[in-house]
C-alpha cells in the first residue's frame, strides 16, 4: 500500500499544481461550462 | 618419554555410547525413554504420568499420577528435530502452563541442541514464539523490574519493551524430559514485555529470577522446520506479531505529511503568483426597480493560455436587490460562459437588536477559461428601491484568482489512504493488546 | 610439558600447566596429587553414569584471538543440577576456566581479591566490590560438591570435595565466580559468550549429533 500511495499521492500533487496553474477547479458542482451560442443572432450587440 | 613400551602413550579415543537410555518406571513398570541422560533432571512416564527424578540413582518419583482433566497432545511430537535460526533443535519436553487468575493456558516445547543449549517454543492460539533464556539483564532498577507494573518499559540492547502481561503462571501438564525437577502445579511470577516482533520475559520464584527474550515465528516456518503435516491456523493477533500495519502506517503517515506540506507550499506559491489581473472594469447604468437588457462590454483580453476568471458585481443596495444575468463570450471562437448573480443587502432592528443580511458585492469564479479576446453580454434587473432613479453598478472581470477550494479537496483526497492505513493499524494494535492487562486502547475505568 | 608416571598403573600422565597440582590418570582413573616430580595416588575417580557435554580434554577454542586448549575438567553438582568447569591453558603461563551450564558458556580468569565478605553473610542480590573490576551483583549462592574430575587441575579435585559457589553478574555480559572452599577462596572474572564465538575444534562426538 505504501508504494501505491506514493505513486497516487505524487500524481495528485502534480495534478494539484497543474490545476492551480490553469485555474482549474477540480471539484466544481456549480461549474459554468462553456456553451456555444444558440445560432446566428446570438447576443452580441456591438 | 618415560613409560613401558607395552603400555600405549595415548588412550584409545572415546567410543560414543548410544546416548538414549531406557528404564522401567519405578511407579508402574512401564518403559521410559530418556533421550539426554546427563542433561535432563526429570522425565515423565507416558504410561502413568508420574514425574521421575533421573538425577537420583534410584529414580525417585517426584510426582505420582498428576491429575489431568484431559491429556494434551503436543503439535510437535517429542523427539522431532527441526531447523530454526540456522541450528537444529530436538523437542525433548512439552508442557502446558496457564495463568492462575484467568486460567488461560498455552503450550511450551523444550528444545535442545547439545552444543547450543536449550530453547523454548511457546504456542498460543496458533501463534509461535521462539524463546531464549539470557544472562544479560535489562537496564534500570532490577529490584522492581519484572514486576509488571502499569506503564513499565524496559530497555535491552537498544530496544524498548512495553509491559504486556504480568501474573502468576502454573505448570498444568508435562510430558518428556526437563533440565530441572518439574513439579506439576508449581507457580512462578511472570511478566511479559513486548517490542513486536520481540518479547522480553521475566520469571521469578523464591530462589531465582530468569530473563528471556522471544521472537515471533510464523506457523508456516514451524511447519516447514519440523516437517509437520498440519498446524492450527493462528487466530487473533499475537502480542509479538510483526507490526505490519504499524510499519505501513509509519511510512504512509510520513508520506502524507510530505504531500500535505507540498500542496501547502504549492498553494502559497500559486496564490502568490496568480495574476489577479483586472481584465475588464465595467460600469453599467441600471434603472432602480427596473429591467435592462442587452448591455455589452467592449472587447477585452484575458491573458494566459488557461486560467480562471472571477466576475465581481458591485451595486449600491440598501434593503434592495440587484440581479445581473450575462454571458462571457469568446470573440474568436464564440464559446460562451453563462452566469448570473444577485446582490442584496438588508438591515433592520428587532427584539434582539440591529441585524444585517447580505452584502453589496457578489462574486463568482469560472474555472478553465482559455485566454483570448472576450466581451460580456449583460441583462440586469433590480427591485426594492425607494426611488426609481438611474443608478450605476460595477462589474469586474479578474483574470487568474487564487483557487482555495482545490487545496481542501486535494488534502481530502490525499488523506483517504492514510485514513485507511491508520484505521488498519489501530485495528491490528487493538487486537494485539486485547489480551493484555495493560491494554492502552481500553479506558482504565473498565 | 611435564610427563610423569602413574604410581598405580604406570601410564603416562601429562602436565601441560605448571599450576596443575592434581590429575586423573586417563587409564586407571586414579586421582593423583603432584609434589614436584612425585605423584601420589589418593584414590580413584568413579565413572560418570550419564554425561552430556560437547567438550573433552583436548578441545581447543579461541578467546581474544588466542588459542586455548582444555586440559582438565571438574563436574560439580548442587541441589538442583550440575555444571562443568573446564580448565584451559593458552600454552604459556596463563590458565583460564570455561564454565558450561545448560548451554551457557562463560570464560573467566583467576583474579586475586582480598577482603571478600564472609560466605555466611552473602545474599542473592547483594552487591560485592571486586576492586578495579567494579561492583558485581550476586545471582546465585550454591553449595556444590565435586562429582567428577578429569585431566589436570590446579587443586585437589577429589570426588565429594565441597565448596560454596557464588555466581555474580556485572555490566552487560560480565560475570564473576567466587569459590569458597575449605582450604582456599578463589575468584574468577570473565564473560558470557556464545558457542560460536569460540570457534571450537576437536569437540566430543555426541551420539546422534
Brief description of this entry?
The complex is a heterotrimer of chains A (46), B (446) and C (209). Chain B has helices spanning 219-225, 244-273, 405-433, and strands at residues 21-24, 31-34, 42-44, 51-53, 60-63, 81-84, 87-99, 105-113, 117-124, 127-134, 153-156, 159-178, 187-195, 198-204, 209-217, 277-287, 291-296, 300-314, 320-330, 336-350, 353-358, 361-383, 390-399. With 446 residues, chain B is mainly beta.
Give a written overview of the molecule.
The complex is a heterotrimer of chains A (46), B (446) and C (209). With 46 residues, chain A is mostly helical. Chain A contains 1 helix and no strands. The termini of chain A are far apart. The model of chain A has no long low-confidence stretch (mean pLDDT 78). By secondary structure, chain B is mainly beta. Chain B folds into 2 domains: 21-242, no CATH class; 275-401, Jelly Rolls, CATH 2.60.120.380. Chain B is built from 3 helices and 23 strands. The two termini of chain B are 83 Å apart. Chain C folds into 2 domains: 2-44, Rubrerythrin, domain 2 (Single Sheet), CATH 2.20.28.160; 60-194, no CATH class. The chains are: A mainly alpha (46), B mainly beta (446), C mainly beta (209). The interface between A and B is large, with 35 and 49 residues.
Topology readout:
The complex is a heterotrimer of chains A (46), B (446) and C (209).
Chain A: H1 2-21
Chain B: E1 21-24, E2 31-34, E3 42-44, E4 51-53, E5 60-63, E6 81-84, E7 87-99, E8 105-113, E9 117-124, E10 127-134, E11 153-156, E12 159-178, E13 187-195, E14 198-204, E15 209-217, H1 219-225, H2 244-273, E16 277-287, E17 291-296, E18 300-314, E19 320-330, E20 336-350, E21 353-358, E22 361-383, E23 390-399, H3 405-433
Antiparallel strand pairs in B: 1-2, 3-4, 3-12, 4-5, 6-7, 7-8, 7-12, 8-9, 9-10, 10-15, 11-12, 12-13, 13-14, 14-15, 16-23, 17-22, 18-22, 18-23, 19-20, 19-22, 20-21
Helix pairs in contact in B: 2-3
Chain C: E1 2-5, E2 12-15, E3 22-24, E4 30-35, E5 38-44, E6 60-63, E7 66-78, E8 81-89, E9 95-101, E10 104-110, E11 127-129, E12 135-153, E13 162-169, E14 174-181, E15 185-193
Antiparallel strand pairs in C: 1-2, 3-4, 3-12, 4-5, 6-7, 7-8, 7-12, 8-9, 9-10, 10-15, 11-12, 12-13, 13-14, 14-15
Amino acid at each position: 500500500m505504501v508504494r501505491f500511495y506514493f505513486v497516487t499521492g505524487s500524481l495528485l500533487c502534480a495534478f494539484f499544481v497543474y490545476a492551480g496553474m490553469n485555474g482549474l477547479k477540480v471539484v466544481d458542482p456549480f461549474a459554468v461550462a462553456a456553451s456555444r451560442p444558440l445560432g446566428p443572432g446570438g447576443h452580441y450587440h456591438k | 618419554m618415560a613409560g613401558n613400551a607395552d603400555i600405549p602413550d595415548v588412550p584409545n579415543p572415546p567410543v560414543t555410547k548410544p546416548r538414549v537410555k531406557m528404564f522401567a518406571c519405578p511407579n508402574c513398570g512401564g518403559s521410559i525413554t530418556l533421550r539426554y541422560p546427563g542433561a535432563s533432571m526429570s522425565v515423565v512416564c507416558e504410561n502413568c504420568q508420574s514425574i521421575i527424578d533421573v538425577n537420583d540413582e534410584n529414580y525417585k518419583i517426584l510426582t505420582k499420577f498428576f491429575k489431568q482433566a484431559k491429556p494434551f497432545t503436543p503439535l510437535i511430537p517429542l523427539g522431532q528435530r527441526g531447523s530454526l535460526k540456522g541450528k537444529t533443535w530436538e523437542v525433548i519436553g512439552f508442557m502446558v502452563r496457564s495463568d492462575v487468575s484467568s486460567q488461560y493456558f498455552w503450550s511450551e516445547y523444550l528444545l535442545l541442541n547439545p552444543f547450543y543449549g536449550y530453547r523454548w517454543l511457546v504456542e498460543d492460539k496458533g501463534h509461535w514464539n521462539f524463546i531464549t533464556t539470557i544472562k544479560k539483564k535489562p537496564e534500570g532498577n532490577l529490584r522492581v523490574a519484572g514486576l509488571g507494573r502499569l506503564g513499565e518499559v524496559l530497555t535491552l540492547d537498544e530496544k524498548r519493551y512495553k509491559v504486556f502481561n504480568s501474573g502468576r503462571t502454573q505448570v498444568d501438564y508435562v510430558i518428556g524430559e526437563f533440565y530441572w525437577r518439574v513439579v506439576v502445579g508449581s507457580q512462578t511470577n511472570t511478566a511479559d514485555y513486548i517490542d513486536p516482533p520481540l518479547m522480553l520475559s521475566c520469571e521469578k520464584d523464591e530462589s531465582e529470577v530468569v530473563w528471556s527474550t522471544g521472537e515471533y515465528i510464523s506457523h508456516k516456518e514451524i511447519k516447514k522446520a519440523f516437517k509437520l503435516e498440519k498446524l492450527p491456523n493462528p487466530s487473533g493477533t499475537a502480542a509479538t506479531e510483526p507490526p505490519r500495519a504499524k510499519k505501513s502506517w509509519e511510512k504512509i503517515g510520513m508520506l502524507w505529511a510530505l504531500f500535505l506540506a507540498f500542496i501547502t507550499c504549492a498553494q502559497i506559491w500559486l496564490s502568490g503568483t496568480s495574476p489577479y489581473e483586472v481584465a475588464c472594469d465595467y460600469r453599467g447604468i441600471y434603472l432602480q426597480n427596473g429591467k435592462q437588457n442587452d448591455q455589452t462590454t467592449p472587447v477585452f483580453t484575458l491573458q494566459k493560455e488557461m486560467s480562471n476568471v472571477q466576475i465581481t458585481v458591485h451595486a449600491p443596495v440598501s434593503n434592495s436587490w440587484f440581479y445581473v444575468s450575462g454571458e462571457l463570450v469568446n470573440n474568436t471562437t464564440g464559446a460562451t460562459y453563462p452566469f448570473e448573480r444577485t446582490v442584496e443587502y438588508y438591515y433592520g432592528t428587532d427584539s434582539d437588536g440591529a441585524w444585517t443580511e447580505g452584502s453589496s458585492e457578489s462574486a463568482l469564479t469560472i474555472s478553465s477559461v482559455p485566454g483570448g479576446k472576450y466581451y460580456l453580454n449583460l441583462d440586469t434587473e433590480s427591485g426594492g428601491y425607494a426611488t426609481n432613479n438611474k443608478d450605476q453598478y460595477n462589474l469586474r472581470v479578474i483574470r487568474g484568482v487564487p483557487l482555495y477550494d482545490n487545496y481542501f479537496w486535494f488534502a481530502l483526497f490525499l488523506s483517504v489512504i492514510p485514513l485507511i492505513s491508520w484505521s488498519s493499524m489501530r485495528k491490528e494494535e487493538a487486537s494485539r493488546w486485547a489480551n493484555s492487562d495493560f491494554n492502552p486502547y481500553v479506558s482504565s475505568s473498565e | 610439558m611435564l610427563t610423569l608416571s602413574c604410581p598405580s598403573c604406570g601410564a603416562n600422565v601429562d602436565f601441560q600447566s605448571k599450576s596443575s597440582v592434581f590429575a586423573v590418570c586417563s587409564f586407571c582413573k586414579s586421582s593423583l596429587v603432584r609434589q614436584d616430580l612425585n605423584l601420589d595416588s589418593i584414590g580413584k575417580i568413579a565413572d560418570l553414569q550419564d554425561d552430556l557435554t560437547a567438550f573433552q580434554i583436548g578441545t581447543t577454542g579461541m578467546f581474544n584471538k588466542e588459542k586455548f586448549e582444555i586440559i582438565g575438567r571438574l563436574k560439580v553438582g548442587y541441589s538442583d543440577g550440575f555444571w562443568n568447569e573446564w580448565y584451559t591453558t593458552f600454552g604459556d603461563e596463563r590458565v583460564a576456566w570455561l564454565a558450561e551450564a545448560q548451554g551457557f558458556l562463560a570464560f573467566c580468569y583467576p583474579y586475586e581479591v582480598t577482603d571478600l565478605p564472609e560466605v555466611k553473610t552473602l545474599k542473592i542480590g547483594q552487591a560485592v566490590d571486586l576492586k578495579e573490576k567494579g561492583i558485581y551483583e550476586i545471582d546465585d549462592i550454591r553449595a556444590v560438591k565435586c562429582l567428577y574430575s578429569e585431566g589436570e587441575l590446579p587443586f585437589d579435585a577429589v570426588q565429594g570435595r565441597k565448596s560454596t559457589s557464588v555466581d555474580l553478574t556485572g555490566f552487560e555480559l560480565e560475570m564473576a565466580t567466587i569459590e569458597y572452599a575449605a582450604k582456599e577462596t578463589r575468584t574468577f572474572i570473565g564473560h558470557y559468550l556464545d558457542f560460536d564465538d569460540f570457534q571450537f575444534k576437536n569437540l566430543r562426538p555426541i551420539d546422534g549429533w
